[in-house]
Write a structure and sequence with these properties.
heterodimer; A: alpha/beta; D-Maltodextrin-Binding Protein, domain 2; 2 domains; nine-stranded mixed beta sheet; 16 helices; 17% strand; B: mainly alpha; MetI-like fold; 17 helices; 4 strands
Chain lengths: 349, 434
């Protein structure tokens, strides 16, 4: 028995190493990146694989930062061709790319995603401002008397924050710090609220790290509950506890409108129209970055981008809108369609 | 002092009437304590069984509907104008189905309503018609009655997950769609069938088209690599360390290291795999081969430790007897000690493999947490594994993925139970007593 196993294992290892050295070319597109873009990119990849002669692209959900890091690690078959991101690529990342020989990157903005604050349908919808969000969730808030100093957040109920809000305990279920949704929420909602205090706004120029610490630090006394990356779980918890508020991507609200409702922020309800127009303040653009040097080497990259940027995919009635992505206005779509078509690389100063 | 002496002494003291009274008094207290302790044990078992039941009930009740899929019967006219013989693979199949639906409900004219009507049938229907036509070209020009899968929202409606009483705006299935559905249902054109797609296809973003087979094939490839590498290496290492190596500081050092490795968090093995197998050896990302190599690193210490324990439990008298009749060291080990230790070794191996089957963290680093539609066909094809598939589905917004997540957990549990059953069978088959 042992002899058989040893022989089998030896034969197997030689066989696999032989096949590995044989398969030097990769005949599918490799995509990495944001978990927010993942559900949208996956529909396009599937559609592309089923309707063209190319193989279905492989899509890894690594998070925006992790995806760009992989993307920038070099040129060659073992490195991914496309990175999805729920934020714009940073200058430091472009520099890193350049160090590794990835010189030309094509940027394609693909649409928008809204971050919603939603609660159970059992209670009437809330209408809050970004200032309320900041005052309810920041670890330290400006002194209530108006002096320019910080105190630990004393607010226990929404009514403490703003007398027009309901008298329920502040209980917010949100994503952990590793999530791109959390980054965007902190940047758009919390920072937006903090800026309404002029002295904090002035601090941005004087002491940037202190400014960031004030705006970006969420309280840790139990009012904000990190509910993990699983947004379906947050929805279940909201159903069980009507007083709680959850933070997640717009596509989850869209799929569960019978159970939960989005709170309007600064007077705008989270829906397709307000997010696409840019009225709803807590929304962010989604991007796709393509390695130009791989186009033409790996079969299908160009066709995949073409599928993604076609009106039946990212248009107003496209299948991506059905999945909850908010389409860009027509002019913007045209601009990025042309960038993608003629493979215009970005310049980041 | 023997027993009778004890009794004698007890009797002597009982004459004073105190000891026996004390014993009698404490007796009921001691019995009570024992009964109490037994009850604690029973309560502990009931609690753990209760949690297990709760887990099973919640998973099974959520998961079993996924084994059924709602189908709808439609008549499709395979129009020769739409299906030119030379361009069958790229013909407008959605158009055929849309036409068939429109002819069934000619009163639907508004663009928005038409979209809602077409949305009731899964896009999987197009591929089904395409496959059917490509297989049998003679059908072109005829009208075929086919059962096609419905969209996931309609499937949820048929399974009772959508409350008809909620206001229309808040419902994913609109009033007009409800009316169409009821009309179809009354005409007997709606049917629930066994969901074969779930067991035969790979992942998909459309819940009604997604299946577990791609992930299962990936898991099998990974496990084959893991088993073929970790069993021989692990057993050889254990036999050498236990039977041949002389006690030295080096052996101690290796032993400490193996025990440490068994306690290392699995994500570390993923990082190691990324650095060595992918970046240094240049093996492909997302491949079951690399996944198997990484999981081999993870299961090796488990197998070595279990095998050494099994070898240690073989009585030394067997070795001495074999050596005594003139067997060489190697003959002793392989003819006598190893067969006796084999059941224990196999149990350890299967526990290690079961752990590998449920592992996701190390695979994240080597690109196996990915959306992969095509079912892998070799050890180097990109693929994913069952627990990763569960994780990906659990994180999808569509409600129909909730039941699919539970169904995938059921499949994984069934596989785990099957491997553990195999372990018990093998142990009973090879077990020898002395």
């Amino acid at each position: 028995m042992i002899r058989i196993i040893v022989v089998l294992a030896a034969a197997f290892t030689t066989f696999t190493f032989w096949t590995c050295t044989q398969s030097e070319s990769r005949n599918y597109v490799s995509i990495v990146g944001s978990s927010t873009v993942y559900p949208f990119a996956a529909v396009v990849a599937e559609q592309f694989g089923r309707t063209t002669r190319f193989r279905t692209p492989i899509l890894e959900s690594t998070g925006s930062g992790g995806g760009i890091k992989l993307f920038c690690s070099g040129v060659g078959l073992e490195h991914p061709d496309i990175a999805n991101a729920s934020r714009r690529i940073k200058k430091s990342e472009v520099d890193r790319c350049r160090e590794n020989g990835v010189n030309e990157i094509i940027e394609v903005k693909i649409g928008y995603d809204g971050i919603v604050l939603a609660s159970s349908r059992k209670n009437p919808p809330m209408s809050i401002s970004r200032k309320d969000i900041f005052l309810a969730l920041a670890k330290e808030i400006p002194d209530l008397s108006g002096a320019e100093k910080l105190i630990a957040n004393p607010h226990k109920t929404w009514k403490d924050v703003n007398s027009s809000l309901p008298d329920t305990k502040i209980e917010v279920l949100g994503p952990p710090p590793t999530s791109g949704t959390r980054d965007a929420f902190v940047e758009l909602a919390m920072e937006g609220g903090a800026k309404t205090f002029s002295w904090i706004k002035d601090l941005k120029k004087k002491d940037k790290s202190r400014y960031k610490a004030i705006c970006h630090t969420i309280r840790e006394d139990g009012a904000f509950i990190e509910a993990g990356e699983n947004d379906n779980l947050i929805i279940q918890k909201l159903e069980a506890n009507p007083d709680a508020v959850g933070i997640f991507g717009f596509s989850f609200l869209e799929q569960n409108t019978d159970k939960i409702q989005g709170s309007s922020v600064d007077g705008f309800e989270p829906n397709f129209g307000s997010i696409a127009k840019g009225d709803y303040p807590v929304s962010r653009p989604l991007f796709m970055y393509v390695k130009k040097s791989h186009v033409g080497v790996i079969p299908g990259i160009k066709n995949y981008i073409e599928e993604f940027t076609s009106d039946k995919a990212w248009g107003e009635d496209g299948y991506l809108a059905d999945k909850g992505m908010i389409p860009m206005p027509k002019e913007e779509r045209e601009k990025y369609y042309n960038d993608a078509r003629y493979l215009v690389p970005i310049e980041i100063k | 002092m023997n027993n009778s002496e004890y009794k004698q002494k007890a009797l002597d003291k009982s004459s004073s009437g105190r000891t026996i009274e004390m014993v009698n008094k404490s007796l009921s207290r001691r019995y009570k304590a024992e009964r109490r302790f037994r009850r604690y044990g029973q309560v502990a078992i009931i609690i753990s069984l209760g949690f297990l039941c709760l887990l099973f009930i919640s998973i099974i009740s959520k998961g079993y509907p996924a084994f059924y899929q709602t189908f709808i019967q439609i008549d499709v006219f395979l129009d020769p104008d739409v299906l030119p013989k030379d361009k069958l693979s790229t013909a407008n199949y959605p158009g055929l189905i849309k036409k068939s639906l429109s002819s069934e409900f000619p009163e639907v004219e508004l663009r928005r309503e038409k979209k809602q009507l077409y949305g009731m049938v899964s896009i999987g229907a197009y591929y089904q018609i395409r496959k059917m036509v490509m297989k049998n070209r003679d059908m072109i020009g005829t009208t075929q009655t086919v059962w096609v899968p419905v969209d996931d929202d309609i499937d949820m409606l048929a399974k009772g997950h959508i409350d008809r009483n909620t206001p229309e705006l808040e419902r994913r299935v609109k009033d007009i769609q409800l009316a169409w559905f009821d009309r179809w249902d009354k005409a007997g054109k709606i049917k629930k069938r066994f969901n074969t797609t779930f067991f035969t296809s790979g992942d998909s973003r459309e819940p009604e088209m997604s299946g577990i087979w791609g992930a299962m094939a990936g898991s099998l490839y990974v496990l084959v690599v893991t088993l073929l590498l970790s069993f021989p290496i692990g057993v050889a290492a254990a036999v050498y360390l236990e039977e041949f190596a002389s006690k030295s500081r080096w052996v101690d050092l290796i032993e400490v290291n193996i025990n440490n490795l068994a306690a290392v968090p699995s994500i570390v093995f993923g990082l190691l795999g990324l650095a060595i197998f992918i970046n240094f050896f240049g093996l492909p990302r997302s491949a079951p081969l690399v996944g198997g190599l990484v999981l081999t690193l993870m299961t090796l210490p488990i197998i070595i430790i279990a095998s050494r324990a099994a070898l240690q439990s073989v009585p030394p008298s067997i070795r001495q007897a074999a050596l005594g009749v003139g067997a060489s060291k190697m003959q002793t080990v392989f003819h006598h000690v190893f067969p006796l230790a084999l059941p224990g070794i196999l149990t350890g191996t299967i526990i290690g493999i079961s752990r590998a089957l449920g592992e996701t963290a190390p695979l994240l680093m080597i690109g196996m947490v990915a959306f992969i539609v095509d079912v892998p066909g070799s050890f180097t094809d990109p693929s994913t594994v069952l627990p990763v598939q569960i994780y990906l589905w659990a994180d999808s917004p569509e409600r129909a993925f909730v039941e699919r997540t539970s169904a995938a957990i059921l499949v994984l549990l069934a596989l785990l139970i099957a491997t553990n059953f195999l372990a018990v069978l093998l142990r009973n088959r090879f077990e020898r007593r002395w």
